[in-house]
């Protein structure tokens, strides 16, 4: 059995693209050290440290419906979906991804699972 490096997710609300299409299904891959280091060189992060999270999520979310994911995509997400992706990132990278099997798609993470790491 190999290491699972990609995890499907379902956003609680969903991303609405410019044509009005709702996208809720996506895939996030495990982060690499480079994913967390590279954003620190970005001028947007130098101006606002919180922007690093936007850049990291844009790097590790590999699919979101038919949308090409980039920082603008992450910026336009509803706050609840942005928070969901932050929690999802923490669970798959620093927590126990097996909890994902017991959750309803798009449901909020248990508080103890979301705060690991």
Word description of this protein:
There is one protein chain. With 117 residues, the chain is an alpha+beta fold. It has one domain. It has helices at residues 33-37, 43-47, 51-60, 71-75, 79-94, 111-114; strands spanning 6-16, 22-29, 61-64. The protein has a three-stranded antiparallel beta sheet. A hairpin with a 5-residue loop joins strand 1 (6-16) and strand 2 (22-29). The model has no long low-confidence stretch (mean pLDDT 91).
Topology:
Elements: E1 6-16, E2 22-29, H1 33-37, H2 43-47, H3 51-60, E3 61-64, H4 71-75, H5 79-94, H6 111-114
Antiparallel strand pairs: 1-2, 2-3
Organism: Kibdelosporangium banguiense
Protein name: Phage tail assembly protein
Content of β-strand = 15-25%
Q: Which consecutive residue ranges, at least 5 long each, have pLDDT under 50?
A: none
What do the pLDDT scores average to? 91
Helicity range of the residues?
25-40%
Q: What is the general shape?
A: globular
Task: Determine the number of helices (DSSP H or I, runs of at least 4 residues).
Answer: 6
Order of neighbouring strands in the sheet with most strands = 1-2-3
Roughly how many Å is the radius of gyration? 14 Å
Q: Total strand count, please?
A: 3
Provide the structure class: alpha+beta
What gap, in angstroms, lies between the N and C termini?
25 Å
């Amino acid at each position: 059995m190999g290491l699972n490096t990609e995890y499907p997710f379902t956003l609680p609300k969903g991303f609405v693209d410019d044509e009005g299409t709702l996208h809720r299904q996506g895939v996030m891959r495990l982060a690499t050290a480079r994913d967390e280091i590279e954003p620190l060189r970005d001028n947007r992060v130098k101006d606002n440290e919180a922007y690093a999270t936007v850049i990291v999520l844009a790097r590790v979310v590999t699919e979101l419906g038919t949308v090409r994911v980039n920082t603008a995509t992450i910026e336009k997400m509803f706050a609840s979906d942005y928070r969901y992706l932050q929690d999802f990132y923490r669970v798959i990278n620093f927590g126990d991804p097996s909890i994902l099997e017991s959750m309803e798609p798009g449901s909020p993470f248990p508080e103890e699972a979301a705060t690991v790491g």
